[in-house]
Amino acid sequence: MFNTARKVLLALLFAGLAGPLFAADLPEPVVEEAPPPAVYEQPAEVGGWYIRGDIDYHKSTVRGIDYMTYTVDPCNCTVTPGSQSFDFGKLKGGFSLGAGVGYKINDHFRTDLTADYWFKSNFNGQTTGTAGGSPVIVTSAESSKMSALLLLANAYADLGTYHGITPYVGAGIGGAHVKWDTVYDPTPGATETNPGRSSWRFAYALMAGASYCLTDKIILDAGYRFSHIQGGRMFDWNVGSSGPGFDRGINTHEVRGGLRYQFGGNNGCAAPVVAYQPEPEPIYTK
């Protein structure tokens, strides 16, 4: 019996000593740190005030020019005028500068007020008629210059952003101050002149283009604009000449480029920023 108890005691002692020895030979678990998910702080809600500046090249078309023929001052209302039309009238291309202030309401809608000054464009035309009661048909060249200030209230629909480019369409309504210089016959020796007129007229515009974020504040804008200016008085009557004259309206095609600067709110260009990076949680692997 004592032999049996002694054997059991020896076995227990051996197990107690051998356990730590075997455990020392086992590999320890390796701790790997998984990258934690970043927590992003979204920029402020899209919207805010902006200013803009534009430059363009435009080509205008006069839809037609009518004029009256008087033998005396047209203020004498007992005289019945006869209406005639220019054979043709053409405006050459020109440049304009524009500026405006607007507000971006959300990702898809913005509005602005713009003012564009059209520098003078050369005008060339021709009339055919009789002179001094003579039955002889006379052809006369006509020259002048036209400039305008176009004021518009505009609304735009941004159609989504694709690879950093945001296409848009828009429309505007407002008025234009059109100024015609003196209309004269450029033929050497000719003395016929008519004083040009200036007046405010109704105008509207249709736009399409695209914008691109240069920075989180500055946006490049390029596009096309069609504008129509209502017809009005072009020139007055003058002694020894016909008149007054009226253009039937001016259609203009513009290629535009410019910059928008958002000085309030968010223009949609700002990227999310990391607001908080949590401590990594350990992951144990065998």
Automatic annotation (TrEMBL):
Residue ranges annotated for the Outer membrane protein beta-barrel domain, each copy included: 45-263
Keywords on record: Signal
Species this chain originates from: Rhizobium loti
Keyword Signal: yes
TM segment ranges: none
Listed name of the protein: Opacity protein-like surface antigen
UniProt keyword annotation of Transmembrane present: no
Superkingdom of the organism of origin: Bacteria
InterPro entries with a match to the protein in the record: Beta-barrel_OMP (IPR027385), OMP/PagP_B-barrel (IPR011250)
Signal peptide: 1-23
